[in-house]
Design goal:
It contains six helices and nine strands; from the N terminus they run ααβαβαββαβββαββ. The protein is of the alpha/beta class. Helix 1 crosses helix 4. Strands 3-2-1-4-5-9-8 form a seven-stranded mixed sheet, sandwiched between helices. The protein has a two-stranded antiparallel ribbon with strand order 6-7. It has a single domain, classed as Vaccinia Virus protein VP39 (Rossmann fold).
Length: about 210
Amino acid sequence: MQHPQDHWEKVYQTKQPDAVSWFQEHATQSLDIIRSTGTSLDANVIDVGGGASTLVDDLVESGFKNLSVLDLSASALAVARNRLGTAGDSVTWIAGDIRSVDLPHNTYDIWHDRAVFHFLTDTADRTAYLQQVMKSVKPGGHVIVATFAPDGPEQCSGLPVVRYSPDELHQTFGPAFELVEHMSEEHKTPWGSVQHFVYCHCLKPS
């Protein structure tokens, strides 16, 4: 079986950033939720699985000063880093596996993940992910996670995913996480098909 890192390196080494199903010219929904938290521009924000996403571009342009982007694929991070040029010099780029990467304790005010969590089909992997949230997000910090909705695709990039309703996604994190809001998104792929996402915005237990 191919290692997940090898899979994603191949994707980003063989396809243009705007030729993958999850491409967004602007991550408008994510940006709106992050802005709605009311945190200061000095807030520590991590985009988990951010890869080549343009969210970091818009956060930099919005004035956020303490940004981290984590991805399993160094090639994906290189795309974003090269695109930003010197504007990305202040961003912390982390190539690593969210299940095992060494993240700092009680550091992040905002944890954002669009479409990593639904790839974690094993209970042990989801547990490892939640342990990272509990370790690295500040008490009372914002946790924003988006996955495929119940009527979303059953696979992405040839890999199986777990689809969630808002309640299911919140319950997976646990009742101690306070649900602030949830919302849906109809994501249009570069070739015009529609994928349904669900976003949950929670607060980590204080």
